[in-house]
Amino acid sequence: MNNKEEIQHDLNSSFQSKQLNVIARDVTLGFGERAFSAAGAAVLSAVLVNPLDVAKTRLQAQAAGVPYHDLCRTSCFESNTMLPDMRSSTSCTHAVSGSKSECALRYKGTFDVFYRVAQQEGIARLWRGTYASLALAVPTVGIYLPCYDIFRNSLEEFTSSNTPSLTPYVPLAAGAVARSLACITCYPIELARTRMQAFKDPQAGVKPPGVWKTLLGVISQVRTTNNLQRSLQNYRFLWTGLGAQIARDVPFSAICWSTLEPLRRQIIGLVGDQTSIATILGANFSAGFVAGSIAAVVTCPLDVAKTRRQIEKDSSRALKMTTRHTLVEMWSDGGIKGLFAGVGPRVARTGPSVGIVVTFYEVVKYTLSQRSWSRDGDNL
CA 228, CA 160: separation in Å to the nearest integer? Predict the structure, then answer.
């Protein structure tokens, strides 16, 4: 073996030992410690990026036919398939002679949403649905990230011993399974959040409905005296759009983690032998930002489909809608533009959000593992 090969061998050995050291510390943490780390990350992310979530939802709902103006009552929408009670047969009409058409009053982009929501509804409305986001994010991320860690560690241990060729695909599988579990568990809160962000308050000065009242409004569409049938219908309404949510979240998670893991490990491998808080911060935020942005762009059409299914007010139509049918409608309504409605604020929200969540989670995990190791060392 020549000097060049020896140097490369030493670098590879150092990189592998560093990764094993980080993973070994990670495995020592229990589910409760992981859940605590994830919950803190979820709270921080939900508060910081909520205005972008509102902008994304408003733009997607507008493309589906939700009106956000008060000057004109007749309709001019891109879509002729959503929210039948709000449609008009005319392509574009005017309320009075010389007035602007509703098309001219539409949101033009992310910053236009920010400006008009703050001006017309108050700046606090940009954080509409934050309580729902917190109610959703804490249990969801508290399930999602710890389960992802546990699945990943178990699968990596199994594949490295039995089928090493499958090890690179472990993050993809672990992320998909963990996200599905979290999505199914907490879906009704996600449904409430989307509706809270999509629709303007009916009357100025009236306190808008919270999560519980929003969900009660969803199930109030059921009209039957049969208690069993009503319970089944309530259940179906509360999980309306779950298929679209899973169709979005599973590939998102698979793309995100399969991009994030190798990128994070490469960045950690470039620094010195001593892992520090600064290393954890830089590696995780950079990898999370890139991975989240890529996954957000790829899965945007599925996110638009999810929003459309969740805001549908026609109860019979809502129960019949499928993700595939919704995607076809989106294409026929607006083509590529319709499929990627709200992609700007979605990417602007998701990239930093993934970076913040993963960074906070890993930093808290690292701190807890360091304390655990110090405690164990003192006991020896």
Answer: 50
pLDDT band at 74 (very low <50, low <70, confident <90, very high): very low
Residue-by-residue DSSP string for 29-52:
S-HHHHHHHHHHHHHHHHHHHHHH
Helix (H) or strand (E) holding 338: helix 323-339
Closest CA to 369 of 141, 36, 9: 36
Assess contact for 265 and 21: CB atoms under 8 A.
no
Would you put residue 303 in left (φ > 0), alpha (ψ -120 to 50) or beta?
Answer: alpha
Residue 316 CB-half CA count within 13 A: 2
Beta-carbon count within 10 A of 277 CB = 12
Q: How far is the CA of 170 from the CAs of 120, 148, 181, 202, 261, in angstroms?
A: 48, 10, 17, 48, 10
Over residues 21-67, the pLDDT tens digits come to 444 445 556 667 667 767 777 777 778 888 898 899 999 998 888 87
Going by C-alpha positions, the residue among 61, 102, 60, 65 that lies closest to residue 83 is 65
Given a contact cutoff of 8 angstroms between Cβ atoms, the answer to whether 38 and 338 are in contact is no
The tokens for 196 are 């809270």
DSSP letter at 128 equals T
Q: What is the pLDDT of residues 180-219, one digit of tens each?
A: 988 888 888 888 888 888 887 656 566 777 777 787 777 7
Cα 271 to chain centroid, rounded = 31
Q: Which residue has the tokens 């020592």?
A: 28
Which H/E stretch holds residue 112? helix 110-120
- DSSP-derived letter for residue 197 is H
Each residue's pLDDT tens digit, 148-182 = 988 998 999 999 989 989 988 898 899 889 989 88
Residue pair 44/360 in contact by the 8 Å Cβ criterion: yes
What dihedral do alpha carbons 322, 138, 44, 263 form, nearest 10°? -70
Contact residues for 228 (Cβ-Cβ < 8 A; gap 6+): none
CA distance 281 to 3: 34
Could you tell me where the beta strands, DSSP code E, fall in the chain?
none
- Specify the pLDDT at position 313: 77
